[in-house]
Structures are given as C-alpha cells and as structure tokens.
Design brief:
Elements (H helix, E strand, L loop, with lengths): L14 E5 L2 H4 L7 E18 L10 E19 L4 H12 L5 E10 L6 E9 L12 H10 L1 E2 L2 E2 H14 L5 H16 L9
Antiparallel strand pairs: 1-3, 2-3, 2-4, 4-5, 6-7
C-alpha cells in the first residue's frame, strides 16, 4: 500500500476515525456512532494540491489536510470491530491515492457528555510531499479552487460542502468561511459561466 500507513494491530477493537473535511459529509463507510470531536496539535488547512479527486497535475485543485499547530474540530466516527479492517482499506484507497497523507493515531477529545478521549485514525499532510501547498494566500486558494475539477467533481463544491458540514455541527472555520464567501461572490459575478468539463 502506498503512503505511510500503520499495521492493523494498531487498531484493536472498535475503530475511531477522525473526519475534518469530506469525511464529515461523505464518510463512505458504516459506523455505529458519530460524535463531534476536537483534535489538538494540528489544524485544518487547504494545504494539499489535488491532482486526482478535485484537480489534475496540470490544473491542481486544493483539498484539506491536517497541518501542524493549533487544533481542529471535526467528527469522530466509531466503527464496529468487525468492520474495522475493511474501513481502513477503504480509507487508504480514498486518501492515499497519491501518498500525500501520513496515516496516524491521534488523541481526540469527544465533545459528548463524558468528554472522553479516544485514539483515532487520522490523515495528516506529509510536508515533504510534492503536493504539500503550505500556506497559500486567500487569492491563491480561490484561484486553485475555481480551476479545480477532478475525478470526484468540482473543487468549489468540495469547499462549500465542507463549510456546510462545519456549520451543521454548530461552529465556524474562519479561513474556510471567508473563502466560501468569495466563491459565492464569484458565482454571483459569473452566473452563466459553464463549469470546466476537463
């Protein structure tokens, strides 16, 4: 398997998966519990050039990664032990298509009544990878998102769906919300512009 992965034995029993981007609104796997959660030590950022799902090498889009520093609110999914291996395999096929992420275990605080801490599977950006975009200006982010179109669809839709999922959980991500506002404004300025079909 391409990318940096962990042995299955690192995940005994039920599996927790931390979602912070598209996994929040399209997990794609069976789960038995879904809890708002917070990961400390990394933050959500549009720091990954997308060459497959939301762009191409010629016209990269931008997708989210967990980058070092800060904290990230998202969703923790609990997967039954019997489904754990199949879920890990599914996530590797989806997230590790170009090996831009490191598969890691991270402590995640569940924002439920007991406020318990669990060890969850998470995908953190590999800063040494060619697709690591680093910190881009909002203008650069907007340009890449507007041009991005890949196997999973239009980059703009990915950003707006993630913002909608964040709002559904009752919080905001200031940089993403700012970008979403710019995307809405751009659409208002060019309502008849056809979608890029490449």
């Amino acid at each position: 398997m391409s990318g940096i992965t962990l042995p299955y034995t690192e995940f005994p029993g039920d599996l927790w998966v931390f979602g912070y981007g598209s996994l929040m609104w399209r997990p794609g796997f069976e789960f038995i519990e879904k809890v708002p959660a917070r990961l400390i030590g990394e933050h959500r950022a549009l720091c990954v050039y997308s060459f497959v799902h939301r762009g191409t090498p010629e016209k990269p889009g931008l997708v989210l990664g967990l980058d070092r520093g800060g904290a990230c609110r998202g969703i923790a999914f609990r997967v039954a032990e019997k489904d754990a291996r199949a879920t890990i395999d599914y996530l590797r096929a989806r997230e590790q298509v170009t090996s831009v992420y490191r598969e890691v275990k991270r402590s995640v605080w569940l924002e439920n009544e007991p406020r318990q801490r669990v060890s969850a599977l998470a995908y953190v950006v590999d800063r040494g990878h060619v697709q690591y975009a680093g910190r881009l200006s909002l203008a650069e982010q907007l340009r890449h998102v507007l041009q991005g179109h890949g196997q999973s669809g239009v980059n703009r839709d990915y950003v707006l769906a993630t913002v909608k999922a964040i709002e559904a959980e009752g919080f905001r991500d200031a940089p993403l919300h700012q970008l979403a506002t710019m995307l809405h404004d751009t659409t208002a300025l060019h309502p008849s512009r056809p979608q890029d079909a490449t």
